[in-house]
């Protein structure tokens, strides 16, 4: 039977550090929150190599009393609370007293601090939780803390860190959030000696939004505000122009504390979709001010989650505030009287969706996928030259023998099974030794593609969306958009794999200013964009210029396509396989396909079906929807009650 051991302080601190100090950005967050609690008005953050080598934070706050310098690095030492009752009246960022002790246990720390009443400061140096020295030092009022060699004594944690650029982007992101929560504080961020964020502490949130997100976002947002007796809410919500494919541009603050909360996120998104039902996530910044006794912030190690005493009230207040703001915004934009603005209430959305689900269920009973076993042969071998849509049954015969050709009776090679001999060509070859020419015979070959279904007879087009075709006693419906999308998808993916992508030069390059995190994602994936046919140049700090795009895309919205690809690369991380990464890009890139309601001529429909026959998987689009459905004669006769 194993006995119970008491862990020593060093071990327990390292364990605690695993919860509090997840990565360099966690260190920056904890230290900046300490600066905010010290009533600092100017905070400077400097990092090297993504914070793994060095993190330096300087503030002009109240400072630490000389007698408390060593005590500050002891476990559970804090100036924020003094008893358990204070937990329910917290109005500061920190309160547990774990951060400094945890950080000091996994790094080398140097801290200098001075209070206003004393003419000199105090300095402490700690390595891996062991104090090196404590001595007097000259410094300004406030605190300077330097964290070097993070996780130097925990190599297992280092292995799980991302690249330095990605870790730097995480730090930049958390500084952006803290700057948004504190517009009255001036933040300066320097990454590898390059200036990043710079806010001016004007107290105006819109100024910080412009500094963090740029001009385009600050000009496409709408403010909202609402109050009750116990809680107030205010902030900004963006329009459809700045909506994105991920929730990275969403921020929630409760009593100026940055948190993640599904309840508030759902409330804002539902209010947004009442007016703009797009398949993207809205930009928003929400500030919730509530009495501390109505929330519990002590439910997560990183304090990133909280509990509300009344979830329903919070949801309703958030929904109503955003809903009213968007409604008034549309009224002003379109000059529509207040009562005449159409919108969809939540219960109407649900009932509409239920009806759609019912209709979808009904349709699925008759929309059966093509069953290749119903054909006499699974594969159809035929010649394919450009848009040639001829059909020769002789090519359905199986050809297992290998065709050989002979050059000058000396070299023998095997022609693959999917190659067909088409003739003999006399070739004149110059003998480099004698200098004389001689003729040799060379057998030419051509590729014989494998069709996945027989050549349908095109009947016509229904609703300018579906192609009607027949084969034997079966009627087929082909979704023209899904079919063309899959053709482009496979062509593009094949071109990427074979490094054979044609690019088109843009008349006017597209200049895009990225956030610091997005720019870091781009720099990590420059090779990916090059491999997919993009030609992109650096155009300044966090700014790129797109000069060429893949020719297969037609006339895409380059900016939106680039942002969508970037968001997907960010969401999938760096460990995805080639197939996952490039399949995702190819799916996004196929938006130039023929659309529904596009009228096609008979020749265009035949050409589309012929191209579809020869791709690898013609029966589903890149998103998994069917491209072809069938109705057998038996099914139709049952519908008309001809048979039972």
Helix content: 25-40%
Shape: elongated
What is the CA-atom radius of gyration, in angstroms? 33 Å
The CATH superfamily of the largest domain is Histidine kinase-like ATPase, C-terminal domain
Count of discrete alpha- or pi-helical segments spanning 4 or more residues: 17
Low-confidence regions: 336-436, 440-446
Number of domains: 4
**Main sheet record:** 8 strands, mixed
Write down the CATH class of the largest domain.
Answer: Alpha Beta
Oligomer: single chain
CATH architecture of the largest domain: 2-Layer Sandwich
- Report the sheet-strand fraction: 25-35%
The average pLDDT is 76
Distance between the termini: 74 Å
Number of strands: 28
Question: Could you name the CATH topology of the largest domain?
Answer: Heat Shock Protein 90
What can you see in these coordinates?
Helix 8 (262-273) packs parallel to helix 9 (311-334) and helix 14 packs antiparallel against helix 15. This protein is an alpha+beta fold and 644 residues long. The protein contains 17 helices and 28 strands. The longest helix is centred in the middle third of the chain and has 24 residues, at 311-334. The model is unreliable at 336-436 and 440-446 (pLDDT under 50). The strands form eight sheets. Strands 5-4-3-6-2-1-7-8 form an eight-stranded mixed beta sheet, with helices on one face. It has a five-stranded mixed beta sheet with strand order 9-10-13-11-12. Strand 19 and strand 20 (437-447) form a beta hairpin. The chain folds into four domains: 9-202, Histidine kinase-like ATPase, C-terminal domain (Heat Shock Protein 90), CATH 3.30.565.10; 214-351, Ribosomal Protein S5, domain 2 (2-Layer Sandwich); 380-451, no CATH class; 457-630, Ribosomal Protein S8, Chain: A, domain 1.
